[in-house]
Amino acid sequence: MLTETEQRSVKKNARRALDLLDDQVFGLGEQERQIENIVYDFLQSKDGKCCLLEGERNCGRESTVRKVMEKYKKELRVINAGFVAADPNYQQELAREEDSGYSIFLVRDADKLITPQQQKILYTMVDKATHFSWLVFFSISRHDFAQNLQKQATSRIPKVQVSFDTTHNYDEYCSAMTQFLIPKGSKCEDDKCYKKFITSLNFEKWLRPVFQTSRFVVLKQLAAQILILFGYYCEEWESSEINKMISAIVARSLPSYNEKVIILKDQTLRSQCVFLCVWKLLQNKESDGPLSVPKTSYRNVFLEFKKLVNSYYPPLNVSSDIFVFRELDHLVKMGVLKADESTNVTNTSFKKVWTQINDTVVKDTIPQLQLPSRISDFFESISK
């Protein structure tokens, strides 16, 4: 049990560590060095250039670039490829932009620009870097990014590339957790009470399941939750209570944990079937635009539900669409589904709805639901 003085020390330092967490980058020293060299050469030569940053989502590319920018006290202009692709006006503004000195860009999710109609944006950015003092970083996830471009684009794509595909062992993973909770060079390092408390957590014993299933981004999220707990919410400072709270946080961070699935499992049979009807209708359905998700209408869900119960389980039948609409509203309220709340939808039948649970997770969850065998077999056959 910590004394009141020790509790205050832990709270104060946990808040400090949380404030510094966004800037914490671990295991990317070589990538940081390469990017720093690229930026230094650009600032010295004034010659525009482009660079590919290759790696999976949330692998630390943007954090590393921002860290280098802060070192040189330069502004980083971030362009979200998805939004640019959907906004012709912004594309035109970008094309008309003149040289205003050193400009450094990061194009997020540049993979979204590999379709033939969107590659013009790539031409624009590369051309600007050719003629102006522009340094453009393209953040990509696909190893075959260049191969998927048209010949006109392939010839322009830069050969300079920094790879963020890195692997780490368990000791390095634990070292990263230590750095997130006790940032190097911070006042947290000087507080013996705080360091002793963090060491007493023995996270080396309970981190392995996270290491086996997750990358550093999840570790960082886990560290954030622990720091928020100790900095703002912890009231029980007994070791046993702290261990329980941390175990709950770790469980929520694992891929097998999904809060919405737990909610779905607690619903009535009718609610579960209504949800699965929404999911079935959205299978292979295209969205209305690049920034929207596939949706279906309340009316379509009702018709699908009627078809389901008439064919496989008549006891669930309803006499009116209002019963299915109420189930949909309930599932939206519970956060399992999401619905269009637009004020211009005056007829509930035309209201749009979509799922809040990943398609793969739904497929894995169907066998776990207590469904009648015929209904379960039907939905499992769709998921295969």
Structural description of this entry:
The protein has 384 residues and is of the alpha/beta class. It folds into 3 domains: 4-23 and 168-253; 29-163, Rossmann fold, CATH 3.40.50.300; 260-383, Winged helix-like DNA-binding domain superfamily/Winged helix DNA-binding domain (Arc Repressor Mutant, subunit A). The protein is built from 19 helices and 8 strands. Helix 1 runs antiparallel to helix 12 (216-233), helix 2 crosses helix 3 and helix 8 (170-181) packs parallel to helix 12 (216-233). It starts with a helix and ends with a helix.
Largest sheet: 5 strands, parallel
Question: Can you identify the CATH class of the largest domain?
Answer: Alpha Beta
User: Helices and strands: which structural class?
Assistant: alpha/beta
* Gross CATH architecture of the largest domain: 3-Layer(aba) Sandwich
C-alpha Rg (nearest Å)? 26 Å
Compact summary:
This protein is of the alpha/beta class and 384 residues long. The protein has helices spanning 4-20, 29-45, 61-72, 81-86, 88-96, 119-131, 151-154, 170-181, 192-200, 203-206, 208-213, 216-233, 239-253, 259-265, 269-282, 298-312, 321-334, 359-365, 373-383; strands at 49-54, 76-80, 103-108, 134-140, 161-163, 296-297, 337-339, 352-355.
